[in-house]
Design brief:
Elements (H helix, E strand, L loop, with lengths): L19 E19 L12 E22 L2 E17 L15 E12 L5 E11 L2 E2 L9 E2 L2 E11 L6 E6 L12 E3 L3 E3 L1
Antiparallel strand pairs: 1-2, 2-3, 3-4, 4-5, 5-8, 6-7, 8-9, 10-11
Amino acid sequence: GTIRVPNRNQPESFFSPARLILRGLVYYWRVNLAVMLATAVGVAVLAGSLLVGANADATTKGFELDVDTLLTEDWLFGVAYGYLNAEYDTFEATNFAGNALPRAPENTWSAYTAYTFNMSNGSAVDLALNYTGQSSFFFEVSNQASSKEGSIGLFNGSISWRSADDRWNVSVWGRNLTDEEYRIHSITSNIAGTVD
């Protein structure tokens, strides 16, 4: 996600009177999906085929909440949390009804902080650090154990310099600062097994 930093030119009224912003979102969706399946999950297909199409109905519901606060004129802090319940209601020709949708962690959370050092020549140095996390989820509609990814949390950070006239900006940033290992994709098939 994007790391926000205080803006020297932003009117203070943006944070007034409590210098706090609270945002929330509640949602409920019912959708019909065309899904492509790997063949290793008990779907009857022609020998040698890798993928098969199926129709499914799914319900997605949840909420998101985030809070931003300006602790001082130069120090910004924020936290966020999201809850998601995303399941298949029906699934054509399979027993996947009730399974979780792929890549749909039930819980997500984050926190960030950013501080601006204003230099005497009018330029500024912005330091930012954020943490993002999510609970476990499945890569595939079958919800097989081999397609489950565990919960993970990542630290990211950046250092930026801005010129006094805001015409120049130089940034150095890093992702996954603690070098956590996690999968970005996984496929299970009846030919190759599990491929990460």
